[in-house]
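Please fill in the sequence for the structure shown.

STRUCTURE ENCODING:
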């Protein structure tokens, strides 16, 4: 069993239901989505989530959902007086827009207890976090998190980081880019999306993104680019993998998150990077043909990883 620890925020999601004016409750969040897909895909992965929730009923429902999805909750901290973050999806002529209530979420306190973080990390083989994980923390907690992850990397753990640049969650773009490069310096594998990277780091092309993150210290960089080619480099190889563009996209939510999960599952299965990326493209393609972040996966795809 490979023990994978995901660190981040899972939120309650209210999405429009079939009866007009009503909503259905779900749970999602970038790192959580990747944990969910990895748990579905890969029976060799022991997946657990490091976050914080409240003591209320919705926090309990979230934990139940994690457990029934095969995601371990033993590292979830409970913060009295807080609750989970919430977002609401509104549909306007088919376009989705998002409203968030996450400023006071329990997950904002996830890195307050450095000992809890250290204990969880010491039991993991792979640690996974994102730019959103960093964005929800205050400066001091962010430093605690990065310090702990740096120690884990020096102890030989694999550290996987998706920069997921979300400027609205940060005080300024420079705070965001500075923290992301600090995170890159403690990561072994970085999984950015080119559209974000070119907007905020000014990379001229995906090769420039690969180069910048390799220079920061990563062994492996895989750059997603929507319907365009995926660029990658690791210690054995580098290359470009074609994506078969899909014209009738239903919902791009979790395209990158599901891609990352399949990439990790491929690595655990001992596949070549090229084959892992091709399979990750296939999973992401399936996910964007369904609604919402968590789309049921075809059994045939799951069987590939068995
Ligand atoms: P993110 O969700 O992080 O922004 P991207 O939009 O770059 O990620 O997409 C991640 C992956 O999803 C791509 O590498 C590709 O495999 C798949 N994908 C996204 N958009 C399309 C599309 N229009 N057609 C086919 N595949 C797509």
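FILLED IN BY: designer on duty
SEQUENCE:
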């Amino acid at each position: 069993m490979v023990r994978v620890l995901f660190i981040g925020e899972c939120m309650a999601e209210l999405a429009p239901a079939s009866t007009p004016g009503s909503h259905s409750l779900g749970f999602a969040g970038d790192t959580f989505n990747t944990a969910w897909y990895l748990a579905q895909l890969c029976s060799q992965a022991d997946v657990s989530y490091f976050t914080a929730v409240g003591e209320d009923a919705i926090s309990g429902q979230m934990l139940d959902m994690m457990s029934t999805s095969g995601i371990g909750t033993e590292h979830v901290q409970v913060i009295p007086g807080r609750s989970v973050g919430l977002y609401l999806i509104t549909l306007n002529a088919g376009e989705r827009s998002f409203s968030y209530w996450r400023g006071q979420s329990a997950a904002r306190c996830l890195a307050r207890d450095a000992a809890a973080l250290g204990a969880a990390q010491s039991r993991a083989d792979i640690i996974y976090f994102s730019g959103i994980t960093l964005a929800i923390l205050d400066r001091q907690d962010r430093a605690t998190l990065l310090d702990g992850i740096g120690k884990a990397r020096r102890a030989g753990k694999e550290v996987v980081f998706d920069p997921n640049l979300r400027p609205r969650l940060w005080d300024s773009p420079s705070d965001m880019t500075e923290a992301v490069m600090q995170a890159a310096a403690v990561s072994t594998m970085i999984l950015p999306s080119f559209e974000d990277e070119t907007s905020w780091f000014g990379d001229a092309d995906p090769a420039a993104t690969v180069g910048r993150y390799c220079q920061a210290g990563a062994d492996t960089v895989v750059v997603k680019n929507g319907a365009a080619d995926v660029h990658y480099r690791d210690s054995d190889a580098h290359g470009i993998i074609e994506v078969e563009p899909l014209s009738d996209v239903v919902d791009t939510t979790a395209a990158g998150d599901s891609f990352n999960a399949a990439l990790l599952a491929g690595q655990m299965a001992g596949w070549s990077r090229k084959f892992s990326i091709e399979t990750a493209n296939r999973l992401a393609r399936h996910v964007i043909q369904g609604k919402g972040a968590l789309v049921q996966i075809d059994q045939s795809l799951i069987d590939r990883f068995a």
